Amino acid sequence: MAGRGRGRLPLSLRRNAVAWERQRPTWRDAKPALIAGALKRAQARPSGNWYVVGASRDVGGDRPLGRTVAGQEVVVWRDTGGRVVAGPGVCPHLGAPLRDSPVRCGTLVCHWHGLSLNGGPFAGWEPFPAYDDGVLVWVRLDAVGGEEPLDAPVVPRRPVPARALTAVYAGIGVCEPEDVVANRLDPWHGAWFHPYSFVDLTVADTPETAGEDAFAVDVSFKVAGRLVVPVRAVFTAPEPRTVVMHITEGEGVGSVVETHATPLGPDASGRPRTAVIEAVVAASDRRGFVLARAAAPVLRPLVRAASGRLWRDDLAYAERRWALRSTGRFPGA
User: Fold this and answer.
1) How many CB atoms lie within 10 A of CB 79?
2) Which segments constitute the Rieske domain (predicted)?
3) CB under 8 Å, gap of 24 or more: what pairs does 76-82 form?
4) What digits encode the pLDDT tens for the residues 239-252?
5) What is this structure's pTM?
6) Around Cβ 121, how many Cβ atoms within 10 Å?
7) Beta pairing partners, 259
8) To 5 degrees, how large is the angle CA 285–CA 289–CA 291?
9) How far apart are CA 216 and CA 249, in angstroms?
10) CB atoms within 10 A of CB 24
């Protein structure tokens, strides 16, 4: 990819294409110890006890956003000034589920007995620190995280949302956050496991060779037939539950895909559940991108659908990894 200039159109015609089964095997390169080492270093980085709970655009209106994080019920809404506020999702009076209560003029009103919460401490209800980064909403849960708190979450570098096309996908899997992060720190599986989206994938640099804790990947995104968009993508893990892909060369330089893993709590069978919340923040200096941003309401569902197709596979990967780990059968390091 290095040194390759951009054409007038973002598409390229794939030449010398090989069948899926004839592509070069990557299993020797995808060393279990290399992936495990990157995962271990990610888990050692501070998060400040911040957890992603959803998309910024999902917080507002006459209902709060209700989530469960590591078994802790959480509600998030906006006050009269548009500021995000958050706190426990259990009413301190008699335990009503506040996620089912309405928001009126910036105040959350319990639908059981009318206890009103404006985001400040009241009647035994204590707020949680909340942060809106313009794309995602985070909540700080110190009792859950157990780390030294940070004033703000570790937000990855990304294009300015007002100049980008943003879309957020959310899915749930039976696994732990580390299984989601490990999936993202294995770029070698891309063209084998997702041939409908990725072709001609080469891992150009790893933490062993790059001089930094990152994986650099040359890959082409499939559009239709032999039409592809070749890019270089760099994967990093800035905190324990986040992996970020930055486009550093090719079309859409500066665009990011952020994958956040939020623990939810056990299911009815006692198995762990994790939410994958993935933010696509796409940018381009091409003139036509202005039209793409204007068509964002139409494009967002398409972007979410594409993310959802990939995550149907990748959650199967993460769930399989957890199933093997939990029974002592995982062959990785």
Assistant:
1) 16
2) 50-139
3) 76/130, 76/137, 76/139, 77/103, 77/106, 77/108, 77/119, 78/103, 78/106, 79/106, 79/107, 79/118, 79/119, 80/105, 80/106, 81/106
4) 999 999 999 999 89
5) 0.94
6) 10
7) 243, 278
8) 150
9) 11
10) 10
- 3 state SS of 62: coil
In the DSSP assignment, the letter for residue 153 is -
The span from the CA of 147 to the CA of 180, in Å, is 21
Pair of tokens at residue 46: 């501070």
Residue with tokens 């952020």: 258
Residue tagged 């706190």 (tokens): 87
Contacts 24+ apart (CB under 8 A), 104-113: 104/62, 105/80, 106/77, 106/78, 106/79, 106/80, 106/81, 107/79, 108/64, 108/75, 108/77
Residue listed under structure tokens 């299911």: 267
Cα–Cα distance, 127 to 76 (Å, whole number): 10
pLDDT of 255 above 90: yes
- Residue 162 makes CB contacts below 8 A (sequence gap 6+) with none
AA letter at 89: G
Q: What is the dihedral of CA 298, 299, 304, 305, to 10 degrees?
A: 80
- Amino acid at residue number 272: P
Closest of 195, 180, 317 to residue 259, by C-alpha: 180
Task: Report which of 197, 169, 115 is spatially closest to residue 304, judged by C-alpha positions.
Answer: 169
Mind listing the pLDDT tens digit for each residue in 48-93?
Answer: 999 999 999 999 999 999 999 999 999 999 999 999 999 999 999 9
Measured over the CA atoms of residue 318, residue 255, residue 17 and residue 299, the dihedral's sign is positive
- Interval 144-153: pLDDT, tens: 999 999 999 9
